[in-house]
Amino acid sequence: MILVDTGPLVALFDPLDSAHARCVDTLSEIAEPIATTVPVLTEAFHLLRPGSKGAANLRDFVAASGLRVLFLDHSGLLRTFELMAQYDDTPMDLADASLVAVAEARNVGTIFTIDRKDFDIYRRRQGHRLVRFAVIG
Question: Between β-strands 129-132 and 123-126, what pairing exists: parallel, antiparallel or unpaired?
């Protein structure tokens, strides 16, 4: 499984986005299932603007199971908040923190993002180690 950040979702469904072509190419090369979190999806819909063609296309993509949506349980939400506090100097937003928390819980090491600088800094706990993400996009 590969986790998807907000940037690629916006770029994939907004053809005017400067990263659109790059994200379409990256998505076409991904063979694994892709997933995201509710905070990421919320942020993407906000940036695409409700009622837009991009938002409608993203809804259709999710409805057709093109993108799995993962929910945070209580412990996942607490870990998300803990990560936001840990990286408050970056700062880490709710969407990014939710991806890191899910990556830890599901042992996922790859993120599809156009926000390389943050995901080059973030680490996920894997046992007693902190591990870098493989960043694509």
Answer: antiparallel
Q: In whole angstroms, give the CA distance from residue 108 to residue 103.
A: 5
Q: pLDDT, tens digit, for every residue of 67-98?
A: 999 999 999 999 999 999 999 988 899 999 99
Classify domain 2-136 at the CATH class level. alpha beta
CB 112 within 8 A of CB 3: yes
Domain residue spans in the chain? 2-136
The residue to which tokens 């902190």 are assigned = 130
Contact indicator for 58, 45 with CB cutoff of 8 Å: yes
How crowded is residue 75: how many other Cβ atoms within 10 Å of its Cβ?
10
Cis peptide bond N-terminal to 91, omega within 30 = yes
